[in-house]
Amino acid sequence: MDILKLVPPHEESRFDRLLAQAQAEYRLLRVLPKRRSLLMRVIYRASLMPLWNPTFLDDYTTTLFFWVFMPEELIGTDEGYRVLRHELVHVRDAWRTGLLPFAFSYLFLLPAGLTLRAFWELRAYTETMRVEFEGTGAIADSTLEAIAEQFTGPAYLWMLPFPRWVRRLLEKRRAKIIRQRPSAPSP
Description:
There is one protein chain. By secondary structure, the chain is mainly alpha-helical. The protein has two domains: 83 residues, no CATH class; 77 residues, no CATH class. It is built from nine helices and three strands, in the order αβαααββααααα. A three-stranded mixed beta sheet has the order 1-3-2, with helices on one face. A hairpin with a 2-residue loop joins strand 2 and strand 3.
C-alpha cells in the first residue's frame, strides 16, 4: 500500500498563499525564524535591546530589505498572516523608495520625534487594522491602544511620543478603512 495515499493533502494556509504571491513579486523575499538568526541576535545585543526591548527576539517581527525575521511559532499561522501583511508594506515601501534610502530613513532618524520611521510604521499598522476589519468587520479600541503603545513606548524608542495625537491619527485611519470597505468580514 502506498503510504502517501494515507496522508491527506496539505491545505495551503492564507499565510502560505500570501507568501507565495509576495515571492512571485519579490523573488528574494524570505521569511526566517527570528530567534535562529545570528544577525538578529547580534542586532539585539549590539543595540542593547535587552535594556529597552527585552522581547525583541520573541514578540517582534523585523524586516530587513527582503528578509522577514518572524517568531517561529507565527510562521504559517493566521496570526502570522496578519503580521506578514504588515511586514509586506515595509517590503513594498523599501522597494519603491530604494532599499538604502528606506533603511536610512527608518533606522537612523531616531529616537523620538517626527521621524520617517513613524510614517513607515503608520502605513504598516494601517494594514494591520485593515486585516482586522476584513476578518471581524470591526477594528477594536484595544487594537488602537496596542498600536499607539508601539508608537509611544520603548519598543520603537518612543518614535512618536505624543499619545493623544497618535490615537487621533489611528482613529482617522480606522474611520477611513471602515468607509472604504463597508463589506462583511471575509471567511
